[in-house]
């Protein structure tokens, strides 16, 4: 199902952008109100709900013991999955993951993985045999634009709240002590900043309508130290070198604000 933006709405958004204005009165480089709540799922070892404006996502972290990958026998495993529920947006359809769902999960996963946010070395219980596997589940509750940044913040918050049972080896079996837990070993903090191009203007934290009329998108993942760890280009139009440099510089400065919410 494709959601078509009325031509009058499209023209209005473009005309506002040309004059450095937006429908909701924000500056072009301004985020909507952000709120983060952790431990929102009692059955998950880590969880968080993030709202950016009216966009709302929930993330749950479920760890379990499993076998490591053959080429990384001493490292834990991260697996990210995204569920786009039809109740969150009329264009979301039930069934196998859509291209948008897969892209969202992969971009968020890349930011977490390439920032080395989780200390995977410390998730090894017995090299070559037993490691912690972290299943990260993204659930879109209300899509009002900019799911990338909301999901990245939610994953970051959920991972920081995650507790692992104490694990030991007895008779070549893993024994878990759920009464004694440890914090998930965290190395870093990361945030994603999403920009869209409308006309010749670059807009941060787009609403759903702004996303629909945009000709290009750029996601920039940045660590709290200012290092770029992930980028993704979307949309049909190209971006100039100046466009990319602007987005990167703005993302570095905005990341400092975003990690403060954590």
UniProtKB/TrEMBL annotation:
SUPFAM superfamilies: Ribonuclease PH domain 2-like, Ribosomal protein S5 domain 2-like
Gene Ontology MF terms in the entry: hydrolase activity; mRNA 3'-UTR AU-rich region binding
Main location (coarse class): cytoplasm
Localisation per UniProt entry: Cytoplasm
Short name of one Pfam family: RNase_PH
Function, in words: Non-catalytic component of the exosome, which is a complex involved in RNA degradation. Contributes to the structuring of the Rrp41 active site.
Listed HAMAP family: Exosome_Rrp42 (MF_00622)
The family this protein is said to belong to: Belongs to the RNase PH family. Rrp42 subfamily.
Subunit structure: Component of the archaeal exosome complex. Forms a hexameric ring-like arrangement composed of 3 Rrp41-Rrp42 heterodimers. The hexameric ring associates with a trimer of Rrp4 and/or Csl4 subunits.
NCBIfam families, alphabetized: PRK04282.1-1 (NF003282)
Name of protein: Exosome complex component Rrp42
